[in-house]
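re the bet — no i am not wrong, look at it urself. input seq straight from the record:
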Amino acid sequence: MGERCGTTPTVEELEVGHEHSRAERTECYYQVWDAREMVERIVDLEDELGADVDGICTGMHADVAEAHCEIERLTGLLAARVADSTAAWTAVRSIQLMNEAGRQRDRYRSAWVSARRRAADEANYGMEALELKDAEIHRLKVELERTRHTSH
């Protein structure tokens, strides 16, 4: 990364930086910075983040507290949306169940009407079939009688 000053590091340079272990990186920083320089950087970071009298980074704690408040707010919004969605889903499901019950009722009625129609048709056709059989039997009796009279 230090090979080309003022340029953005390449992917290869970044990957090389991540290949070193934590101990190697610590040793490298220790060799490069002296203790005074390290302390100055820590103080600069505290000033940047906003340190309190004890040296604790209150700016960072404030950011964490703000993040927790935002999480609580978003959780509340999500819970409200889930409740709304649950109510909406319950209403939709109720309508679906009513429609399904209506379809089942209509299928039952259709089957009942169809069965009644078949029974009526069978009764009508049965009577017609009997009348046709009776007519056929009567015709055959007449023909038999005629053949008996002609053969004697």
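see?? The chain has a mean pLDDT of 76. told u. also The first helix runs from residue 11 to 19. so pay up
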